[in-house]
Amino acid sequence: MNTPTATVAIDDLRYAWPGKPALIDIPHLVIGAGERVFLEGPSGSGKSTLLGLLGGVLLPDAGRLAILGTEPARLRAGARDRFRADHIGFIFQQFNLVPYLGLVENVTLGCRFSPRRRQRLGARVNSEAERLLGALGLDVQSLRHHSVTELSVGQQQRVAAARALIGAPELVIADEPTSALDANARAAFIELLFGECGRAGSTLVFVSHDPALAPLFPRSLRLTDVNRAATPAEAA
Amino acid sequence: MFRLALKSLLNRRGTVLLTVFTIALSTALLVGVERVRSEARSSFASTLSGTDLIVGARAGTVQLLLYSVFRLGEPTANVSWATYQQIAAAPAVAWTVPISLGDSHRGYRVLGTTGAYFEHYRFGNRQPLAFAHGEPFAGVYEAVLGSEVAAKLGYSLGDDIVIAHGIGRVSFSNHDDKPFRIAGILAPTGTPVDRTVHVPLAAIEAIHLDWQSGTRLPGRGISAEQALTHDLTPRSITAFLVGLKSRVATFQLQRQINEYRGEALSAILPGVALQQLWSLTGVAENALRLVAACVVIVGILGMSTALLTTLNERRREMAILRSVGARPRTILGLLCLEAMSLTLAGIVLGVLLLYAILAAVRGYAASQFGLFLGLGLPTAAELYALAAIFSAGLVAGMVPAWLGYRRSLSDGLAVRT
Fold first, then answer.
1. Given CB atoms, is B8 within the 8 Å cutoff of chain A?
2. Where does the record place the ABC3 transporter permease C-terminal domain (chain B) (predicted)?
3. How far is CA B138 from CA B102, B105, B176, B211, in A?
4. B-contacting residues in A 217-236 (Cβ below 8 Å)
5. Total-model pTM
6. B148 has a pLDDT exceeding 60
7. Which among B316, B328, B412 has CB closest to A58?
8. Which of B13, B318, B324 to mutate to test the interface with A (most CBs of A within 10 A)?
9. Fewest C-beta in 10 Å: which of A178, A195, B169, B370?
């Protein structure tokens, strides 16, 4: 409430899977617009659950979670999905692409579900997709006629990043996007991600178990500190 | 979304093709059974038209119909000529066509009749018989061939043929002393007429003058010319067709004939007899339909299985779709759309397949079984069957779709394994 411009605002957020002990208990967390935040989350720290809550796929049991001043919990299910489509871009660890869609189609996939992203891009949906792919270091012309399953993991992750970024969503959530890459590729990928997030004006929340990446970010948090319910032992 | 479903299917074209082909085959079978059934019925129904009553010796309705019109089976007894004359002279009767069966020519039945046959016999939609070549028989030793007899045996006008005693394809007792000259060849009708050799009633009498109880009497050879000097009025006939002046009199005359005191007769209405025949064959038809329906169910279950097995490897894909904003309902719709496309493709392919098969076998079916398979548009019953297959496909597709929906709800954005 006190920071309506915050991209993510969390107060006393609690969540537990039915019949299980609490998995998320976050007293307070604010991520401002345009921030690049590293969130270190080992297994069992409630990382996936937090992502589900941020994406509006899971709803908090108690407390408040607002994205861009909107609480997904207060929206109807369809509106939540639309909200996610309009304002949040996701990059996952691996297998990020839809195998039966082409390179550019994978990037523009989100625009099918988001009138707002389409609107922002106007008629330039495909050219923006190609620009993003190019900016992320992919040679669209030579890859165009390949199946996306033939791309290397690094290439796939860049396509996924382009999909998350197209239409300039306010929030980009990256869930272990670099864990399948080698060290050099990791730094390069994060560098590119920073560049495009800056260009789009997107806030970046980068979640990883690997603390070695933390120095690359202006702000880094440990989920085990943020989430009182985090119990790394639960990983087993 | 349709494009999405289509691309997803194309991505798995191997299993998709097999699934579609399974559905196509089962569709072709089900609709084919329906087509053959209805064509068989209509070809039976179109064999005889315009005839009000068929009269023969006392027999079952279906039996009399089968041997008098369809040349199937054997007549049990004959109708005496005197009785025939008496009934033919009844005031309500407009015309009669006598039929005398029992001989054959190289597997084709020989039918003894009079000129009235060519005048009054009607088939299909009350079409009269037409001559492709020649004309009705005039002399005693003249024959008129059905179109198939002439075509298959390569006969033309003026050829001589010999009639065999009995109805086997191979006969050892021939009426070879009295050959027949071909006077006419009928145009094709699509009925048993095409497979019949027509001769005058008097000829049937003539060739049997020197026969008794199925064998030729030794030493009593009567030449063809000598036979003509005998009285060739038949003593009996197998059956006769009756046309009435007014159809109102049909039931009255039928009752009179059935109660005729002179001999035991049966008069049947062709339409009623056909109905009885259908009720007999209905059991077999339904069994066939049931089997075909089971095959369709198996085909559709196959599709369901194929969709179910892919669900697991598609969890990731569903999670990606969810992450870019697809609603769970969209996932459900996508999976339903896939099942629908598969079923629809199967049905379309199946119908095409059926028409290809029909086009390929119709010549054979017509010549071997006298079954004329039309290539017309699907009938109402066939469309109904197609709609039933489609609905079954949708229902069967719901199961994997619903499972995928539930799973994508619980998976959310991350596939939990």
1. yes
2. 290-406
3. 22, 20, 20, 24
4. none
5. 0.73
6. yes
7. B412
8. B324
9. B169
